[in-house]
Design goal:
single chain; 7-stranded antiparallel beta sheet; 6-stranded antiparallel beta sheet
């Protein structure tokens, strides 16, 4: 009988030890999860959520470059190169150009974002890879004034410190044909900020291509730009994507809090 009682006491003691150990473990996990959550909140508040590029503060509202479109020089493509923000990857939420087609000019065009290889300013660079963003068809008719045209967002994450180009083109065959029908004899102007490049321009500059209706040449051949012409009047806004370490910390916090909640439900 005594042996049975001693055995029962030992079993109860062991059960208490296991229960206490589980309590200690779950408390420690709870503290770790709360600490992780606090760190995440601290990181979120400490870092900028958005990064902006903007040259319009240095633009006088009238300085421009032309002629964009088919025209006599067949300059079917205008764009701005830039370096993606440092830190984590980013999504290009939107970008804008300031465009003034002459009266009677009818523009049907598309905007794109590609990776860029070669010099960011001057001769020697080109788009590369596949499109990271393709806009819907854009229609713009000249009214004699600058019009702000905005595009985005991109679906692909841009890598920090890598080179890209955002551009407008009428070189798709259908766009080119419609431009030729109403725009060949008239100019289309883009707002331009001449050199030196203003702070916050994105680290690149204005580029163009005399590619007529040959869209494929934008990724297979060097663009036509032969010198540094400054920057287009443009803006771009990026949303910073959480770094991998932050995502792992978030997953840990969520998983640990879930485990603690499950343990409490089972105790109840």
């Amino acid at each position: 009988m005594m042996d049975n009682l001693e055995g029962l006491k030992s079993a109860r003691t062991a059960h208490r030890v296991v229960t206490l150990s589980l309590k200690v473990l779950m408390k420690r996990l709870l503290v770790a999860a709360l600490t992780a959550s606090a760190l995440l909140a601290g990181r979120a508040s400490a870092r900028a959520e958005f990064v902006s590029y903007d040259t319009t503060g240095a633009w006088n509202g009238s300085n421009s470059i032309s002629s964009f479109g088919a025209g006599t020089s067949n300059t079917a493509t205008y764009g701005e190169t830039f370096v993606a923000p440092s830190g984590g990857g980013s999504l290009l939420k939107d970008f804008s150009f300031h465009i003034k087609p002459s009266l009677g000019v009818h523009l049907q065009m598309h905007a794109y974002v590609y990776a860029w290889t070669g010099p960011l300013m001057g001769h020697g660079g080109r788009a590369t890879g596949s499109a990271l963003y393709t806009s819907p068809t854009v229609i713009l008719d000249g009214n004699g004034s600058f019009q702000t045209v905005t595009f985005g967002p991109t679906a692909d994450v841009l890598l920090p410190g890598q080179n890209y180009v955002a551009f407008l083109t009428v070189s798709n065959p259908d766009d080119y044909a419609k431009y030729q029908a109403t725009g060949v004899s008239s100019a289309t102007f883009f707002g331009l900020v001449a050199t030196p490049h203003p702070a916050g321009n994105g680290g690149g500059g204005f580029v163009y291509a005399n590619n007529t209706s040959d869209f494929a040449s934008l990724t297979s051949s060097t663009w036509t730009t032969v010198s540094d012409r400054g920057d287009l009047a443009w803006t771009a806004e990026f949303e910073v994507v959480p770094e991998p370490g932050t995502l792992m910390l978030s997953a840990f916090a969520a998983g640990t809090l879930g485990l603690v909640a499950l343990w409490r439900r089972r105790r109840d």
